[in-house]
Structures are given as structure tokens and as C-alpha cells.
User: Fold this.
Amino acid sequence: MQILIFIFAYFLQLHLLLSGDVGYLLYVANQVLAGGTYAKDFLETNPPMIFYLYTPACLLTKLTGLNIILSVRLYILFLISLSFNVCLSLIKHLIQPQDKFLYFILYSSLLFILLFLPAYHFGQREHLLLILMLPYLFASVLYLENKPISYPYAFLIGLLAGLGFALKPFFLPPLILVELYIMLYQRRFSSVFRIETFTIACVLIIYLGSILIFQPNYIHIMLPLISHLYFNGMIEPWPFIFSNPTVYFCLAVFLSYLLFSKQRNYHHLSTVFFLALIGMIAAFIIPQSAWYYHVIPALGLASLLIAFCLGREISNPFLFLAVCAVFLFIPVNQSYKLYKQGIYLKNEGAPTKLAAYINSLPEQHSIFCFSTRTPETCFPLVYNTHSLYSGRYPFFWWLKGLLKKESSGEVIEKDKQFLVSILTNDLNHKHNLIIISPEFDFITYFSKDERFRQVWQHYTYLITIDGFQLYAYD
Assistant:
């Protein structure tokens, strides 16, 4: 049954467009694999762990000749299978033999949140965190119940969790909260010294060392720019952050657990997942941006927690399914909408029309996109047209922050000169097909800089498709 569900999930993904974010990060992972570094070859805001995690998919493509999109989907399915089966082996030691229905609920919920909940955002960083973190959560429950785990299993669980938590600093709150709970419950500080936590600590320390040795520009160049411009530009109003139904769902599960949870069987299991949910809600709130994939870990944990708590109370399978249809409507409906979006983007979206035009041109092109949004338009084009991507910016992630600083009168000339110089160097040394998104008048803004005007005079307007302007180097 498990194999059939995995095959079904894979064929669903075949009907979706690969997320532009995932596509771009795969592109940079290939650059890192070839020795690329921050600033010199790319200016990406994410720390390098995501490139390390995507490296196996890139190597699979190089070794087998498989399409990179196929490779990354197979690789993510492998990680899900590994995580899922480790979780199942742990759950068998947690759930009592007479509670077979509760075991089935956890089994089904894990398959849903790992394989189907992310939909179009399959393979995103938050999806990877959920995959890599779940075995650690179940292992923590086993430790609280004094049920030992073999050393090799504990090491594997710690390795997976360490890689997941290292993806972003925002991902650490669940680890901190769960370890604090274990320490307070056991009433001894030494309880945090376990094979899993030792391995997590080693992964984090080695990872930080690798950044200092191999990617120092992330510390010296990228972090100052990110703190000055990226977060300032991405911040959205709190009412907008909390206007999403998925956020309502996570908060509703949080409040319901506080109000109705009592000391009963499997208390440690529900408490650990409740604390992890709090941590992932915090991880969603800290960057203050309402992108759906940011809430995937919280949404997945909330879905798992509510299904488990309902299953603990309702033993009749038919009644349980009826109640779940109500309580889990929001995550299931959101996933359905994202599948529809992914299918639409692959079959009828603007990237498809742009790709058809670019493919009609007589030769292969290097593409560079002018946009303040994520690479959702650009990188499907890169893969669908077999083009090269020649810009060091995945999108102008710094522009909104720069505009805010300028409007407030802050002096940011040094940062601006540096960022525009990279843009003009990329335009000058790599003859591009420029795709300009309609959300901002990029040409007017950048033309205030003499260096940009000198380079831009070599580019000629070609056509506008669905609002996207195309320019080509003469």
C-alpha cells in the first residue's frame, strides 16, 4: 500500500510545474557543486545548507543524465520514504497494541502531510524541514517514556534533524522548546545530552565551520545586505500575515489544545507535537512574510496533532472520518487549491506562453529576469526553454528594502552602488534575453545610474507577452 501511495504522489507531481524557488535553488546548488561562491557567482539570501541538501539530486542528474526536475522529485521521495519509515518504526514502540486505529491515524496523517500537503511547493525548504524533523520528535517522545533507541538509529535521527534545523535560523525554536520540556520533565540538565542532540550539535557546528571556510562571503557580504534590505523589504502588515485561513487553522489547533487537553494516555506524544507546533508558528511569524510555504511545517504539525487528538477520543472509524472532514477541511482544501494552481501554471500560465516564444527564437539564450517577486516566473522558463540563467540575482530581493530606505531618507548609497554594479556587470558580460515583470518600472529606476544607461543602450525591445516585456542584446 505504501509503495502505491508513493507512486500516486509522484504521478501527481508530474502534472505540476516545479516550484520556481526550488528550480532556482537547484541551479545555485549546481553552481556550488562547481565551486561557486556567494557574491562572485550568485547573491542568494538563503544560507548554503539548502544547496548541500539539493546536491544529491544534482549529482543524480550528472551521473545518470536524468532531467533535473525528475531527479529532485525522486530524491525528495527518497527522503520522505526514509523519514516515514523511521517514524513508523518509532511509533510502533509508542502506540499500544490495542490502539491499532490510532496507529493507522498516525500512519495516514504522516503520508498526507509529507506527500500531499505541500502540493506545488514540494521540495521547498519548509517541506524538507518537516521531512527531516519528524523522526526527532517521535524519538524525543520515546526518550520521555524511557524507551531506548539503538545508537545507529539515534545517530540517523540526529543527522536528519540537524540538517533540517540548519536550513534557517528560524527553524530552531521547535528544537529549543522540545529540549526544554525534556529537561524540565526529567528535572536534570544532563537529559539534553543524548546521541540525537549530540549529533544535531555536531551537524550545526560543522555546518557553521563550512560556511566560514568555504562560503565566507555569506557572512561578510550577504548577511549585512539581508539584515539591511531583504527583511525590511519583505515585511508585510500583521493583519495581512494573519488573514490566511491556514494561519487561522494553526492558531485554532494551538488554542484548542490549550483549552481542552488533559493529562491522559499518550500525553508526551501530544505535548511534544504541541511544542513543535508553537515553534513552527514562531518560525512563520519571525520573518513576517505571508508566503504559503512558510507555514507548511506549522500546518503539517497542526494537522497531525488534531488528527491524533481526535483519534484518541473517537474510536469509530466512520465517525472519525466525518469529524476529520470538518476539522481538516482547511489544510486539505488548501492543498487542493495548490494542486490546481500547479496544474494551471504548467498547462496555461504565463511562463508557458513565454516559453513558447523563447523556444521559437533561432538560438539558445541566457535569461535574466527583472522582478521583485520570487523566481516563480523565471525558473520555469529556464528549464522549459533549456536556457542558461545569467543573473546573479534570482529576483531583486533587495529593491523593496532599498526603496523603503530611500523614501525614509536613510543613506544607503554604498549598498546601492554595490548592488547596481553587480547588475550592470551581469548585463555587460553576459548577453541576455531580459524578461521584465510588470510590477515595477525597472528601466526608469535603474536608468538613474550612468553605468546602467551605458549597458542598456545595447538592448532592444522584442515583444510583450501577458505584460512581460522582452529585451534582447543587439
The chain has 22 helices and five strands. The beta strands are 366-370, 388-389, 432-436, 459-465, 468-473. The CA atoms of residues 369 and 378 lie 6 Å apart.
